[in-house]
Structure formats: structure tokens, C-alpha cells
Design brief:
Elements lengths: L2 H9 L12 E5 L7 E4 L4 H5 L7 E8 L5 H15 L4 H4 L3 E9 L4 H15 L6 E8 L3 H15 L3 E5 L3 E3 L3 H11 L5 E10 L3 H13 L11 E5 H6 L8 H9 L11 E13 L3 H21 L2 H11 L14 H32 L35
Parallel strand pairs: 3-4, 3-6, 4-5, 8-10
Antiparallel strand pairs: 1-2, 1-5, 6-9, 7-10, 8-9
């Protein structure tokens, strides 16, 4: 029944194909060594040499216009602190810190200069291997693909990445990597995500709504702090998908297993804090982008995968999905009402793509919809030992 609709939606989004954007890398070995600059990403492995097989990388994708150098420096200093306080099983492996700095016209020199400055933070005896990637601004997924290509050439076991607007609990990255290795360095793992609303009425309303609509049982690693295995790294993210965490969820989802997300894992005691929401207009554009992404993925992937994701995505909207259980009739009714609004908005977006597909006028891009205000929770505003709720049964 859904095949014609999924076909139309698939045709309704046809992004222009293109070659990977050029890269210019800065490589800094541990210790008092001179940085090497101007290296293409596929030549980084040759510049670094042997000894990285089985190692791990941590990537910070960002861009020049996102924040001043001082803010980028603080982010890198926090990551260096995380990577110098690791469990023994993680510390025994080669580690690479990657900063991806995208730039717009006229910002190339600034991007390269920032990477040189940031590389100095990790360049101390016994420190980290640092790789900075300068790339014309072309989206987070393309920057991650550049880092993935480098990681594949080095023979790394996994690659993690974090957003530039999150704050981490003590030892968060170490616990994330430790859990990933304990599980055989397979699939994906992610930090527990603890949101705090920005000081806007719409943001507070969104935060309250998400507290009702989310189902922790169906949580999967979020792109603000997650790691994936070497097989996924080697495959990369197809240009068609702009939301990397949703893509990896679909790629790993097992529709035939009782727990369809068994190839993914949330690490309860590795916590990332982030501010969420903004003015109503920015929230609307961001939600619309999320719905477009979900519609395209459900149209592209096999029907059994799409169907299982649908039941998770609209969980609580009986009879289209399982009814919510475990927190009483009143909570289930609230969830049903909010999921109905969610379904109505999703249907409008999906129908728009389907009409474009039938008319032969496909959408060419799903624009990024970041909140304009760059802010992250301060260390003093987050709890030292947060309580991660197990939520309702599913």
C-alpha cells in the first residue's frame, strides 16, 4: 500500500550530485614538532605514518562564522581535557583529535590560521595527534566524510564526533569510548543527551512537549556526541542525507529483532548537556527540516525498516502505532494529542514531497537550520550527577 507513496516521496527529493569539496589539512604530531600544512585529507595517513591501526578519532565539526577563535579554543581545550583523562583500555590506543573548520568565500586564510592556533593546544609532549581540516562550507556530513576517509586510511576502529555547542560531564568521552570498545567496537554508541531550554517562551514550550513525546526505550545516539564503527566509517554518509545520526539509526536498525536498536547504545553515565530551542520561527524551520529528513529516510530504506521506525517515531499514536503504556491514562492521552499534531505536520511535509515527485519538480536540498544564537551550557549550570530517567515502558 505504501510503495507508490514512498516512490513519490523518494522522487520528490533529488539533491544535485557533486564531487567532494577540496580539503587542506594541518597535521600536528605529539611533542615539540613542526606542524605540516596544506595536506589533502587522503594524504594525511601517509604524513602520519604507521602505528594508528585500531585507534580512535574524535571530530569537532564547526565553521569560521559559528564563533570567535576564543570560543573555538575553549571547545578544543575541553576536548583535550577529556582525552587526557581516559580509562586504561582507551588510553592504550592511538588517539587523533580532528577539528573540521568550514569556511565561506573570503574566509580561507582565517580557517587555516585558526586550525594552526588550535593545533598548538594539543601539541605537548605525550599529547594527542591533531588533524585540522579546512573545507569550503558544504555541510556537516561532508566534513564528517572527510574525517571518515582519513580514519579509514589510518585503520582506526571507530570515529566519534561532538557538536560545538555542548558541555560534557566529567569523563564523558572516555566512558563513551570505553563502552564502545567493551561492546566489540561494533555499531554505534552515544552519550545521554540532557537538554536545557533557551530563554524563549517557544523553547520552554518545546522542551515541555519533548518531555511527553519522547520514549527513552527508542532513543538512539545523537549527533551531538556519538561514535560509530570502522565499517560505517568506511561506507561514509551518502550526500543525499544531511542528518548523520538519523542516517546511522536507519543503517543499523534491525527490524526483525525484538529490540530493533540493539546495534546502537546510549551510555547512561556519559552525559552531554545542550541548550535547545530558540525563537518560534527558528524552531519551526528546524522541526520542518527534521520532518523532511524522516520522510526521505522512510521512503529510501526497505519497507520493513521504515515500518519499524514508523512505530517508534509515532509511538503513542494508537491505532497508527502502539499505544503508550506505563505512566497512566492521562499521560497516554497527552502523548496521543501531541503525536497527533506531530503526525499532521509530518503528513503535510511528506505529501509536499510526494506532489513534487509526481510533478517532476523535486526539492534539491534540505537546508541546515541551526539556531542563530551560538550558546552552550556553562559548567556551573549543569548538575554534577544528573539523573537519567528510564521513562515509560515500550
Amino acid at each position: 500500500m505504501t510503495r507508490p507513496v514512498r516512490w513519490a516521496i523518494r522522487r520528490g527529493y533529488q539533491p544535485a550530485e557533486g564531487d567532494p569539496p577540496p580539503t587542506e589539512c594541518t597535521v600536528v604530531h605529539p611533542g615539540p614538532t613542526v606542524a605540516q600544512s596544506g595536506i589533502p585529507v587522503r594524504a594525511v595517513a601517509a604524513a602520519l605514518g604507521d602505528g594508528f591501526a585500531g585507534g580512535l578519532a574524535l571530530v569537532l565539526p564547526t565553521y569560521v562564522g559559528r564563533a570567535p577563535l576564543s570560543s573555538h579554543r575553549e571547545s578544543v581545550e575541553e576536548l583535550v581535557s577529556q582525552l587526557t583523562d581516559l580509562p586504561p583500555t582507551v588510553a592504550a590506543r592511538p588517539l587523533v583529535l580532528v577539528v573540521g573548520m568550514q569556511y565561506r568565500d573570503g574566509q580561507h586564510d582565517e580557517a587555516v590560521e585558526r586550525l594552526s592556533r588550535l593545533g598548538e593546544i594539543a601539541a605537548f609532549p605525550g599529547g594527542l595527534t591533531f588533524v585540522g581540516i579546512a573545507m569550503p562550507q558544504a555541510g556537516k556530513s561532508r566534513m564528517l566524510n572527510a574525517a571518515f576517509a582519513m580514519a579509514t586510511d589510518l585503520g582506526l576502529a571507530g570515529v566519534a564526533w561532538v557538536d560545538d555547542d555542548v558541555t560534557f560531564s566529567t569523563g564523558c568521552i572516555g566512558r563513551l569510548f570505553e563502552d564502545f570498545l567493551d561492546r566489540g567496537a561494533r555499531g554505534s554508541a552515544g552519550a545521554s543527551k540532557v537538554p536545557q531550554p533557551n530563554p524563549y517562551a517557544a523553547a520552554r514550550l518545546l522542551h515541555r512537549g519533548k518531555g511527553i513525546t519522547k520514549t527513552p526505550k527508542f532513543s538512539y545516539p545523537h549527533g551531538c556526541c556519538m561514535v560509530v564503527d570502522a565499517d560505517l566509517v568506511a561506507r561514509g554518509i551518502p550526500d543525499r542525507y544531511t542528518c548523520e545520526d538519523d542516517y546511522f539509526c536507519f543503517a543499523l536498525l534491525d527490524p526483525r529483532d525484538e529490540n530493533p536498536l540493539h546495534r546502537t547504545h546510549i551510555v547512561a553515565d556519559a552525559v552531554s548537556y545542550h541548550l535547545t530551542g530558540g525563537p518560534a520561527g527558528e524552531i519551526r524551520r528546524r522541526v520542518n527540516r527534521s520532518l523532511l529528513t524522516a520522510a526521505v529516510l522512510m521512503a529510501d530504506f526497505p519497507a520493513d525498516v521504515a515500518g519499524r521506525y514508523w512505530r517508534m517515531y509515532f509511538y503513542g499514536l494508537w491505532p497508527l502505532a502502539p499505544a503508550a503504556r506505563g505512566q497512566g491514562v492521562r499521560f497516554a492521552a497527552k502523548k496521543w494529542l501531541l503525536k497527533s499534531v506531530h503526525f499532521g505536520w509530518f503528513s503535510t511535509v511528506a505529501l509536499g514531497l510526494a506532489v513534487r515527485g509526481v510533478a517532476g519538480r523535486p526539492r534539491r536540498e534540505i537546508p541546515w537550520s541551526a539556531y542563530k544564537e551560538h550558546a552552550k551550557p556553562t559548567a556551573s549550570s549543569v548538575p554534577l550527577s544528573p539523573t537519567i530517567s528510564g521513562g515509560e515502558r515500550a
